[in-house]
Amino acid sequence: MTQPPPPSPPRTIVQKILDAHQIHEEGGRRLIYVDRLVVADTAVPAFRSVDARGYAMRRPGQALIVPDHYTPSTGPSLDDVPDEERRAQIRNSEALGASLDIQVFGLGDPRRGIQHVVSTEQAYAQPGVTLVAADSHTSTQGAVGALAFSIGPDLPHVIATQCIWLKSPKMMRITLDGALAPGVSPKDVALALVARVGIGGGAGHAIEYAGSFVDALSLEGRMTICNLTAEMGALMGIIAPDARTFDYLRGRPYAPKGAMWEQATAYWRTLASDADAVFDREIRLDVGQVEPMVTWGNSVENAVGIGGVVPDPEDEPDLERRAQMIRSLDYMGLVPGIPLEALPIDQVFIGSCANSRIEDLRAAAERLRGRHVAVPTLVVPGSGLVKAQAEAEGLDRIFRSAGADWGEAGCSMCVSMNGDSVAPGARCASTSNRNHMGRQGRGSRTHLVSPAMAAAAAVAGCLTDIRMTGDA
To answer: Could you tell me the CATH superfamily of domain 293-468?
Structure first.
């Protein structure tokens, strides 16, 4: 008598998606089929490498080109790009799309913007798909249940084969429960997580975010949480799709339509981790204990509550970490024990793939309404569609009335590759996701904060505890 097959072991959402895309397994690695590829204006050399080796792109129809790193915030055309080298990068990426018949959201296209923002709002990223890009913050798109991750040097392999070799990651679950205190945002939760887990604490792991806080969180907030997954060194971050996900994706350009929508959502509902799935590491955080956060050093894990002080390296027992703290304090022009609140700043940046969606802009605008900035402030939306929505709501008028500059969509000052940068030695309150030396410009000093905290700092001219302003 034939015996029934043994029951399948319980699986996490990441394992379910990897299992569905596995082609071959060998030597502890899995060959995974890639559903979708997102290409930025920095990726043209990878295509040239493939061509030089005599290969062709395997599936142009499953790629999307979104120029974002070199695109200007000062205007919508190539004429607004400050130099020929950057113009060439954008021009070449758009020419590449035309030559290979790849969809391009280039300059002049109202859908242009930051690749991770554009991909999610277009529903190019969907639950259960494998989506890759040569950008470390690709994990942002895990907010809609996509298995989205950065491939870096493996980009030529994906271009030529539509597949990638991947070592199975360890599983980590971060459970976020509770409700935010007044003045606290998802960005503060993300910074608190990185400070707790550390920049290498997620190495080799895929992180699933769960808990009552995540369940109640908007898709914009989920994207911020998944965005900073990269700062923990994790391979990917993901949130199981739910009714909020379906409501967000329904009707968007790349979302399934008609009967296909019903089939898709039926499959998407199966993607939650099994109740008895095993995780290699579990972390829990009550978000009600998180306060408005700010970074003081050159690592995202160098974050404390705004009411805190610059820590003393002498209190750090780990010699390597102590040395890193000393270097950071020297670069940042800080000394131990200085309160972070009221620390003077020179400029403010509100934008990046961490915080450039409509929810972020609304939070910043609410802080700037009826006020005026004390330092140069640049606000850059994450996409042309976000920009249009913000302008329809009058947010741009609030920013301009406050004396802030309102820019065109793109990476802008987050990465300082496009003409937007922080001056040497200047101190910037930024809603971006990285603060290493020179990230926002040679000699720049970056303090990462939430959109509301950045806007409050712009008005005060210093880092400010928004809970003390009376309108948290």
So the answer is: Aconitase, domain 3 (3.30.499.10)
Q: Which residues pair with 149 in a beta bridge?
A: 132
58 token code pair: 């395997």
Radius of gyration over every alpha carbon of the chain, rounded to an integer in angstroms: 22
Residue with tokens 């989205």: 148
Phi, psi for residue 347 in degrees, rounded to 5: -160, 170
Residue 462 contacts residue 343 (beta carbons within 8 Å)? yes
CATH architecture for the domain at 13-282? 2-Layer Sandwich (3.30)
The reply to whether 13-282 and 293-468 are identical in fold is yes
Torsion on CA atoms 203, 208, 214, 215, rounded to nearest 10: 180
What three-state secondary structure class fits 295?
A: strand
pLDDT of residue 6 exceeding 80, the answer is no
Q: What's CA 182's distance to the chain center, in Å?
A: 24
**DSSP reduced 3-state for 149:** strand
| Residue 135 structure tokens | 């950008």
pTM score, two decimals?
Answer: 0.96
Q: For residue 175, give both structure tokens.
A: 């459970």
User: At a CB cut-off of 8 Å and minimum separation 6, what does 427 contact?
Assistant: 333, 343, 344, 345, 346, 347, 445, 447
Rounded Cα–Cα distance for residues 173 and 283 (Å): 6
pLDDT digits (tens, 9 = 90+) for 256-298: 999 999 999 999 999 999 999 999 999 999 999 999 999 999 9
Cα atoms in the Cβ-side hemisphere of radius 13 Å centred on 240: 22
Listing DSSP states for 62-100 in one string gives GEEE---SS--SS-SSGGGSSSHHHHHHHHHHHHHHHHH
Domain ranges of the chain: 13-282, 293-468
CA distances from 5 to 8, 9, 28, 276, 441 (A): 9, 12, 24, 20, 59
Nearest to 270 by CA among 36, 23, 12: 12
Provide DSSP, 158-182: HHHHSEEEEEPPEEEEEEEES-PPT
Residue 77 phi, psi (nearest 5): -125, 170
